[in-house]
């Protein structure tokens, strides 16, 4: 490990709680958000946990853990949650009700990385609302840093970071020096529960508040337009068969075999 300590940046997103079934609004232009519970994106929660474990278990010397969220003002709730878990500082980039595409998010994060002098970015591989799964890759490209996606295990070996990632055929191990972008998968860890006492203490930790207009030198305009949002087609009901012969006949009728 290099003599300099880790300055970890953890981007997090406020999304509809994973236990809530999303509903399309009446105009079919977006998901209904009125009166809906929001929470931290589960993959980002895993990223926060991993950063804290790196610091607690002294896998590598950590100077700071900085959490950042780009979204509505209410996103400060999930940032307080990150601070309660163990993040040192945080930044809220207030985007109002504006939905940013992954490239725009990556451009904003690049500016924050440079400002914070971060040398390790750990973020969820995707957000469960848009499932884009490309913000981390785009950020690595803009920074010209190596990247390790879908991380299931993170280890520090000498001056390199070894990441085990799940692939279709099993596991793949990649190794890279710092600075580095890592995106987290579900099996990396189990995020901890935050108690009320730690949430109260988190109110004393620093939270920088910025506006999206602070990043006007970048092209943050959307490149895609949502034409319509619809519910998925209902799955047809299944049937029961009394014998293998009957099953085979149904498969033939459906031209599956």
From TrEMBL:
Main location class: mitochondrion
Cofactor(s), names only, from the UniProt record: FAD; AMP
Subcellular location: Mitochondrion matrix
Domain Electron transfer flavoprotein alpha/beta-subunit N-terminal: 28-219
Record has Transport as a keyword: yes
InterPro entries the UniProt entry points to: ET-Flavoprotein_bsu_CS, ETF_a/b_N, ETF_b, ETF_beta_N, Rossmann-like_a/b/a_fold
Pfam families referenced in this protein's UniProt entry, alphabetically: ETF
Keywords: Electron transport, Mitochondrion, Transport
Cofactor note: Binds 1 FAD per dimer. Binds 1 AMP per subunit.
Molecular-function GO terms, alphabetical: electron transfer activity
SUPFAM superfamilies in the record: Adenine nucleotide alpha hydrolases-like (SSF52402)
GO cellular component: mitochondrial matrix
GO biological process: amino acid catabolic process; fatty acid beta-oxidation using acyl-CoA dehydrogenase
UniProt KW DNA damage keyword: no
Role according to the record: The electron transfer flavoprotein serves as a specific electron acceptor for several dehydrogenases, including five acyl-CoA dehydrogenases, glutaryl-CoA and sarcosine dehydrogenase. It transfers the electrons to the main mitochondrial respiratory chain via ETF-ubiquinone oxidoreductase (ETF dehydrogenase).
Family assignment from sequence similarity: Belongs to the ETF beta-subunit/FixA family.
Quaternary structure annotation from Swiss-Prot or TrEMBL: Heterodimer of an alpha and a beta subunit.
Protein name (record): Probable electron transfer flavoprotein subunit beta
Originating species: Zygosaccharomyces bailii (strain CLIB 213 / ATCC 58445 / CBS 680 / BCRC 21525 / NBRC 1098 / NCYC 1416 / NRRL Y-2227)
Lineage: Eukaryota, Fungi, Dikarya, Ascomycota, Saccharomycotina
